[in-house]
Design a protein that fits this description.
The structure holds two protein chains of two kinds. Chain A is α+β, with helices and mostly antiparallel strands. Chain A has 19 helices and 20 strands. Chain A folds into three domains: 166 residues, Beta-grasp domain (Ubiquitin-like (UB roll)); 71 residues, DNA polymerase, domain 1; 221 residues, CO dehydrogenase flavoprotein, C-terminal domain (Enolase-like, domain 1, 2-Layer Sandwich), CATH 3.30.390.50. In chain A, the strands form five sheets. Chain A has a five-stranded mixed β-sheet. Chain B has three domains: 153 residues, Aldehyde oxidase/xanthine dehydrogenase, a/b hammerhead (Aldehyde Oxidoreductase, domain 3), CATH 3.90.1170; 341 residues, 2-Layer Sandwich (Aldehyde Oxidoreductase, domain 4); 148 residues, Aldehyde Oxidoreductase, domain 4 (2-Layer Sandwich). By secondary structure, chain B is α+β, with helices and mostly antiparallel strands. The termini of chain B are far apart. The chains are: A alpha+beta, B alpha+beta.
Chain lengths: 483, 769
Amino acid sequence: MNHEILKTSEIRFLLGEQEVNIDFSVSNYKPTTTLLQYLRSLPDRKSVKEGCAEGDCGACTVVFAEIKGNALKYKAVNSCIVFLASVHGKQILTVEDLGKGKHLHPIQEAMVEEDAGQCGFCTPGFTMSIFGLYKNNNEPEKSDIETALSGNLCRCTGYRPILDAAERACIYKGMDKFTGKEHQIFQQLTEIKSNKEILFLKTEQNQYYLPFSLSDLLHLKKENPHALLAGGTSDIALRVTKKKENLPLIIDISQLDELKTISKNDNIMFFGAGCSLEDVRIACEKEFPSLFSILSVFGSLPVRNNATISGNIGSASPISDTLPVLMALDASLEIQNIHGKREQKIEDFIVGYRKTTLSSDEIITRIKIPFQDKNNILKSYKVSKRRDLDISTVNAGFMLNINNRGLVESIKLVYGGMAAFTKRATQTEKSLLNKEWCRENVENALKNIQNDFSPISDARAGAEARQLLAENLLLKFWNETRI
Amino acid sequence: MKIFHESAAYHVSGKAVYIDDIQVSDQILNGYLYTSPYAHAKILKFDLSEARKTNGVSAILSYRDLPGENQMGPIVHDEPVLAEKSVEFIGQAIFLIAAQTEEAALEAKKKISIEFEELPAVTTLKQGIEQNSFLQAQRKIEIGNTEKALKETKNTLSGEIEIGGQEHWYLETQVCLCVPGEGMEMKAYASTQNPAETQAIIAEVLGVSKHQIEVETRRLGGAFGGKETQGNHVAAWAAVLANHTKRPVKVRLQRDEDQKITGKRHPFLIKYTAGYNDEGLIEAVDLELFANAGYATDLTMAVLERAMMHAENAYFIPNMRIIGKPVKTNLPSNTAFRGFGGPQGMIGIETIIDIVARKLQKDSAEIRFKNLYGIHDKNITPYGQKVENNRLFMLYEQLVKSSEYQMRRKDVERYNAQNEFSKRGLAMTPVKFGISFTTAFLNQAGALVNLYTDGSVLLNHGGVEMGQGLHTKMQQIAALEFGIDIDLVKVNATNTSKVPNTSPTAASSGTDLNGMAVKIAVDKLKARLAKVAVKKLAELQQGLNFVEEDIVFEKNAVFSSKYSDLKIGFQQIVNAAWLERESLSATGFYSTPGVHFDRTEGKGQPFFYFAFGMAVTEVEIDVLTGQHHVLRADILHDAGESLNRSIDIGQVEGAYVQGLGWVTSEEMKYDTKGNLLNHSPDTYKIPGVRDIPQIFNVKLLEGAPNPTTIRKSKAVGEPPFMLAISAYMALRDAVSAVGNHKLEPDLQLPATNEWIVLACRKLRNMLMC
């Protein structure tokens, strides 16, 4: 394969029931035009609103129907942080698609009857989030509804009527005008996705690759070492929408189904690098409740639906919510380039502020989490101003092992938000080793946290509060694990 | 029958048109701002010549290119459209760019050359106070003899409390589309709460008469006060660019830009001294209210005045002195926000009562109850208005029962005794909110009602629909008064050429004022139709005596109450009136009677009536993380005879949750240079779906008609916002539990998890000492 001679090509997707082809070489759109910008440029998709252009308000929520295994799966996403090029092979649905002639969809009817909209600006986004729930969860509990709406902000209603509308609509158990057409949509999307040749999207300013196999991806990365990797784009899209950057060279891994598998053996659970955070969350509930609980307050459902686990790890953010608990779990990464594989503990992989050991030709392919010794106690914590859709002020992943003499055999105290990157409180850990797990010892150990970290003040919190929170989380951990 | 929001079906199907959704010709240009990077600086020189050559850029304008006045201050003319010699806040507009694309505008911005000389800036309220940076002279309201009473009272306390600002976070950012017409005409599609003022500002800025300017407002994607005056800014900018390029121009602020450059709820500092007896009766209160105005006047004086008029909230205080001082700072000019100073004003007295309760080791609800305004006596406010139709006792009695307050107080105490790292708090707070613009002349409204020969009704009025359901209520009023189906009434987009010289839709007054105007217009039309009805009924049944006074409009028909079997359909009567050459169009005009206020004396009758409400909120805090949950909120609110229960409940719930944001999570942080640090929802946190009370009981007070208003209803937009003060007081109660209620919690507002955890530590450390 010689990528020099790749022909430019086009993407194909369904907008409602209509197939759309976009050839970027002749279009006004760029591959990095956001889906929101694209939809709003059309005369009949004005329901999709821009509220923030960063995935924090949900006014732009649309639903993707896509092939997953042998079924069509629906998921709500924030169209403002999705690149147009990445919708290849998907069906996009907005509120304009829900009704049938003059008749409203049961969700729309419920929204009207509960007075769930006031100014109405957020209403289409909420309606689509509920639609995502409606098609996925036939008998949602209150917490499922809240989870489904965790990515939508409303400034008028105080949410109660929206929750009621969601509950009321879901009595129809997902049946609607889409139910009968799913087979046909599945066929259409299958046909689109049958092409496995790399899509090369080119404009004057942009080159955007969509490979379909790992070997193609590795070759592309080798030939384009400076290319940005795009997965769920929830992070890099902000460089377009907020920093107004042009991203000239991107390799998009979102079409690689082989990176989306989840499996396990007796000792280890494997998560493909392209797994969405929501897929990981659902899969890890039983095996790794500490990871599950932190993922449950990670961003919002629409963000988790698209953002990938490897993206969160690879961006090496100091306030990544997954890193502390993954480190506490002793997770490692499988990394590949065209020459082969290597493996590295996540703890060793992160080396600085948004710095990792990944070289420019490498790709993270899998995350490996070992099943824990039955004596290991694991907890994760997130302190943020708001419960959902917020970034941590301080977060933590803790692992404790108490031996049969009642002493601390091993302990890992991993913190985010306390330094330039996710880090263990090594001195504090040391001061607890071989000690009794009692309040006095823990309170004494707390004093070491100031030696482990010197946090900063920023828009989220002051240094003083961060220091205190780091200490308090350890005390909280003790309180929840006291013997 | 439940009447839904008139736009609900459009909202849910994406058919509701907001300004950014309007289909325009491909001639449209987008307007962009070049703004100040400094909080205070001189502009030494600038050169736009290179930038103007940028491809895709049609115009770059400075103040020199303005055709009319360089002024967009709504009351005091202290806000330039574009900065001239100096800039006074970060984000102040200096140049305007009209471009085909954002990329072109960004390219042009890079080529603009400008030199500043940075000057010392006042970036916090405290700095402003220290430097005597005041916008205007102080205001005073006093009743009794505060100094004397403070000397004679048994117990005194004093302190100060800082109250943070609040970003409106309307979902639809500021936006205006201007389309030039022939000659000097300009049509503005503006997201404004005040189309008439937007029209006036555009006229001034373009240097033309108001009759050249037409402002139309279909609906706002949220406003909350943020578009009472500040929607004018984008309108002025779009108009100038459209006028210059002779092409349609849209200015739409992006979220971060909107958060950075527009005004917010005024932060306040309140200094207080209070005297009270051993029973907890407050005998004297001395208050100084400092409002952070930002760089210009905007609505600050009215906001400050309302804060002063709500500084006693629902309590009779025989001796009270309230001083209000507007502090000028180098920040965007702060502006109206639901409650309009009322919330900040109330925090002072509610904090005082909270402290008194702790000092006397009594339940704060008991102290609050003791100090409530009386029915027959103890009912004169510090500004001299009598509190009439007092609903406070009705509310208290019903809410104490329905919220199971006494039992839950005990439960909370038990819970706190059993848990070291988790504490609960409970608080009940009242609201008494004055209804009317305190600037008396604003209390006026107009309507224009057109009947068409098919019996359909087109309703125009001066109010703006921003989600509050005003159009629905106006539609209901017209339908009820005409006795016809609601579907026969359509409410038009608000338009300055239909109803001129209107007041802003603000001060919760929309329904009271416009509803009366609609009724008056409908009454005029009904009188004309009745005249025709008498004639037509007589033709139908000769020999009977029909008089206009007996004519009834009901169930889409017209008949005489004396002979109700004989009916003429509404459509027939309208058509008959047309054939009889009766005018089928009428205006209505209403002005609130009797309101006045003397600012120098600090006395008057500023309010037509008061709206009341009460809330009980229970919270739980995690002492170690500062994170909290609202476990339960019980609200009983007085909306008079509600015009639309579902809409009114929606206002109460929405206002409470918005208030919850103000008291808990919505914090503005600035660096020392005056840069707003949290200028996007990434770091600025309004409540989300999981932040609302886990149990949320909201009821409207029954059996309390408002005697003097449209259909005996009450204004409901702002008052319930302040019910969320109960959540702040409950958080104080929970934190206070860490010190066993012996120590005063040091909790600022908003009580974010950061401040809660720090306050808890302070108390834990004090306990250990």
